[in-house]
UniProtKB/TrEMBL annotation:
<dbReference type="InterPro" id="IPR033452">
    <property type="entry name" value="GH30_C"/>
</dbReference>
<keyword id="KW-0732">Signal</keyword>
<dbReference type="GO" id="GO:0016020">
    <property type="term" value="C:membrane"/>
</dbReference>
<dbReference type="InterPro" id="IPR001139">
    <property type="entry name" value="Glyco_hydro_30"/>
</dbReference>
<keyword id="KW-0378">Hydrolase</keyword>
<feature type="domain" description="Glycosyl hydrolase family 30 TIM-barrel">
    <location>
        <begin position="87"/>
        <end position="424"/>
    </location>
</feature>
<dbReference type="Pfam" id="PF17189">
    <property type="entry name" value="Glyco_hydro_30C"/>
</dbReference>
<dbReference type="Pfam" id="PF02055">
    <property type="entry name" value="Glyco_hydro_30"/>
</dbReference>
<keyword id="KW-0326">Glycosidase</keyword>
<protein>
    <submittedName>
        <fullName>Glucosylceramidase</fullName>
    </submittedName>
</protein>
<feature type="domain" description="Glycosyl hydrolase family 30 beta sandwich">
    <location>
        <begin position="427"/>
        <end position="487"/>
    </location>
</feature>
<dbReference type="GO" id="GO:0004348">
    <property type="term" value="F:glucosylceramidase activity"/>
</dbReference>
<comment type="similarity">
    <text>Belongs to the glycosyl hydrolase 30 family.</text>
</comment>
<dbReference type="InterPro" id="IPR017853">
    <property type="entry name" value="GH"/>
</dbReference>
<dbReference type="GO" id="GO:0006680">
    <property type="term" value="P:glucosylceramide catabolic process"/>
</dbReference>
<dbReference type="InterPro" id="IPR013780">
    <property type="entry name" value="Glyco_hydro_b"/>
</dbReference>
<dbReference type="InterPro" id="IPR033453">
    <property type="entry name" value="Glyco_hydro_30_TIM-barrel"/>
</dbReference>
Length: 489
């Protein structure tokens, strides 16, 4: 029998909530009838400058609603209007995560797995990993010998030491089907015009087929090792020339590689069911990438979705959520999925920086409200230096391990993600939700049994009293300053 533990955070215990199965159901019959009489709202709260960390902070009754006023704050939820189904919420297991995990004691490894994948934790259901090395590897590597375009030397032996064992343990801890997708950062150096896995470069046309075969071989070998692969992205950040592993594809390059090589190769191998995600980069250029690929029927037929990251703010602008809306308007039957995000520029002095968590809350609310079906954090675990990382690109993770003391450090990002992942499971549908004032952000989901989950985030410096209005009923609630709440009803 799998051991379960309760995890204490600054004296506050996370309470287990009733949760629906992670297994996705095909087109469940959703109950949109809301009976407010006698119904209660169960409240979970995380707040800045307090002990509250995903803590159950009470409940409130619904009563007949009064006309909302402009002088008050309101959140309006309409259960009769539902949108996309949720694929899952989770994070990436990288080489860095797996190497740090291996350094933990057996007790701390179990605590970590329970924290992410157990019901007493935050119940992750989505996972990403990488093909070949990435920046969060201890060194660059591929699965073949240099120059082997026929992939005769292909071997995933490197991953068998740390990454594959951790992925398998995480999947076992989750207890049910975990959705795993994979992404490459760079082809082998000899396949690129700069003869280097690092610093950009482009895939040489004479290796297009060999590289398409490489994805197939990776999936086959991982599945032989007992790890089912749900899907793949074509290239991590295809417009970025990075100091680490990277490869540049223009929109036309990605379209043509997909329709002429990768798509047909997967189909011919009997793997047409693997979901292919294009772009896998920031929201700024997502519209151009979607237009170029999805307006071509021969390319679009292979596309399950468009992936995106949140780093477009690197030059000082705001997050471009409206571009997600544009893609969703133009291609409503194509899925949008957040495939990576993390807080950059690691500093051990900022483990508990509250704004790091708020960045997650704001992004998740806006991404889901603009059509995202899934949300994937970057490294699920890093060490006390924000690594390991072979090019010094150190970052934050929701959980860090101090490898000197063996202790786990839970950051605000962990709790903010948990306000979604612990309560919103695969198969839930997003529900129409709006707020009357900009200091509050909100989104809602309903499961197949009619239970609604509303997430509310207060960005202001003040505690806020607000009314949750649902189909003629209201519950009067209060949220602390700089807090996030999950409301279950």
């Amino acid at each position: 029998m799998k051991r379960k533990i309760f995890i204490f955070f600054a004296g506050a215990m996370m309470y287990c909530c009733a949760s629906s199965s992670k297994k996705q159901q095909e087109k469940p019959a959703f109950n949109s009838n809301f009976a407010g009489e006698g119904r209660k709202v169960e409240i979970y709260t995380s707040a800045k400058d307090s002990y509250l960390r995903l803590t159950r902070t009470g409940e409130q009754n619904f009563s007949k609603a009064e006309q909302p006023l402009e002088t008050g704050l309101s959140i309006f939820v309409n259960p009769a209007k539902t949108f996309q189904s949720v694929l899952g919420i989770g994070g990436a297991i990288t080489d860095a995560s797996a190497e740090v995990f291996a350094k933990l004691s057996d007790e701390k490894q179990q605590e970590f797995l329970d924290a992410y994948y157990g019901k007493e934790g935050i119940d992750y259901s989505l996972m990403r990993t990488h093909i070949n090395s990435c920046d969060f590897s201890s060194a660059s590597y591929t699965y073949i010998e240099e120059g082997d375009k026929d992939l005769k030397t292909f071997s995933i032996e490197h991953d068998q030491q740390f990454r594959i064992p951790m992925i398998k343990r995480a999947m076992a801890e989750a207890g049910e089907q975990m959705t795993l997708f994979v992404s490459p950062w760079s082809p082998p150096a000899f396949m690129k015009d700069n003869n280097n896995m690092l610093r950009g470069g482009k895939l040489l046309p004479e290796y297009y087929q060999a590289w398409a075969n490489y994805y197939l071989k990776f999936i086959q070998e991982y599945e032989k090792a007992g790890i089912p692969i749900w899907g793949l992205t074509i290239q991590n950040e295809p417009m970025a020339v990075q100091t680490w592993e990277s490869c540049v594809y223009t929109a036309a390059d990605e379209r043509d590689f997909l329709k002429n090589y990768l798509g047909p190769t997967m189909q011919k191998a009997g793997m047409g069911d693997k979901k292919i995600i294009v772009w896998d980069h920031n929201r700024d250029l997502i519209v151009d990438r979607a237009n170029t690929i999805l307006n071509d029927p021969e390319a679009a037929k292979y596309v399950w979705g468009v992936g995106f990251h949140w780093y477009e703010t690197w030059r000082g602008g705001d997050a471009m959520w409206r571009n997600l809306q544009k893609v969703h308007e133009e291609f409503p039957h194509v899925n949008l999925m957040f495939t990576e995000g993390c807080n950059e520029r690691f500093s051990a002095d900022a483990y508990q920086r509250w704004s790091n968590g708020e960045r997650y809350g704001e992004s998740m609310i806006n991404d889901f409200n603009n059509g995202a079906v899934g949300w994937t954090d970057w490294n699920i675990l890093l060490d006390e230096n924000g690594g390991p990382n072979h090019v010094g690109n150190f970052c934050f993770a929701p959980i860090h391990a101090d490898t000197k003391t063996g202790e786990l450090i839970y950051t605000p990002s962990y709790y903010f993600i948990g306000h979604f992942s612990k309560f919103v499971h695969p198969g839930a549908k997003r529900v129409s939700t709006a707020t009357s004032y900009s200091s509050l952000l909100s989104t809602s989901f309903v499961d197949s049994e009619g239970k609604i989950t509303t997430i509310v985030m207060n960005k202001s410096e003040h505690d806020e009293k607000f009314s949750l209005l649902v189909d003629g009923y209201e519950a009067v609630l209060e949220i602390p300053a700089h807090a996030i709440q999950t409301l279950i009803y």
